[in-house]
Amino acid sequence: MYDGHHVLHLVDRHAFPIVALCGIALLFNYAWYAELIRVAYRDKCYTMAPATTLVYLGHDGSYLIFVHKWWGQYHHWFTQLFWFALVLTFSGESVIFVQTLRYGRHELAPRLSQRRFVSLMLVAAVLTAGAWAAVKLTLGDDLYLVTFMALIFWAAPFGTAMLLRRPAGLGVSTWMWFAFTMIGVLYGAATILYFGAPFRTGAWIALFVGTCAWGGYNVWLARAGVRQRAVDAARDQADRRAVGQAANT
């Protein structure tokens, strides 16, 4: 799809705006993960769909494994900087995966024992990593620039399914999906503005617009769910107060 060395040459020419946009996008990525982890502990449920978590682990893990490529074949500060950045993202994904193992069985596989559920999830992680490696070889995306954007989009529909399936406000916050949306906005803008012609095609712009729009839709769903949860909590509190007053009379 693109020539890696040519893209890195463009990165050198536009280093400041690229680092600014991608750096802020990474900060929002870390904020998204931190909120996913926080809300999971708050509500005692998993907060990232397993289909997303498993693919993310395979994607970021493979980037980390190919350390020789970033210090050898390309030997460029941009790919090396991303390697260090993905150490933290992979760590966050590992925590999110552990939370899925801990909290997910009752919702995902209630008929399984906890031991069998964990075993199946671990097998799924290995199989997903293998499948991802096979897919990655066919993409011609040596620097992971395409898959970074594609996997931002990947999380959006699975997030929508969770938002629509669960009780209002469970396992979600508005900030969670706002941070997610900003990742796509900022990274997509960097690619379109500075990474050259392959990232200004109709298909790429459509992926960018679709990612941002779906993220915005999830922000709206999350906000509605959080508001409904607050209303339900206030109603429950009022009902308990009324019951207590009736018992005292």
- In terms of structural class, how would the helical and strand content be classed? mainly alpha
Unreliable runs, pLDDT <50, ≥5 residues? none
Largest sheet: none
**What series of H and E elements makes up the topology?**
HHHHHHHHHH
Q: Over all CA atoms, what is the radius of gyration?
A: 21 Å
Q: What's the count of strands?
A: 0
- The amount of helix comes to over 70%
Oligomer: single chain
**Continuous helix count:** 10
Task: Outline the fold blueprint.
Elements: H1 4-13, H2 15-43, H3 50-65, H4 67-73, H5 77-103, H6 105-108, H7 114-139, H8 145-165, H9 174-194, H10 202-248
In words, what does this structure look like?
The protein has 249 residues and is mostly helical. It has one domain (4-248). It has helices at residues 4-13, 15-43, 50-65, 67-73, 77-103, 105-108, 114-139, 145-165, 174-194, 202-248. The protein is globular and about 80 Å long.
Outline of the structure:
This protein has 249 residues and is mostly helical.
Task: Please give a handful of descriptors for the protein shown.
single chain; 249 residues; mainly alpha; 0% strand; globular
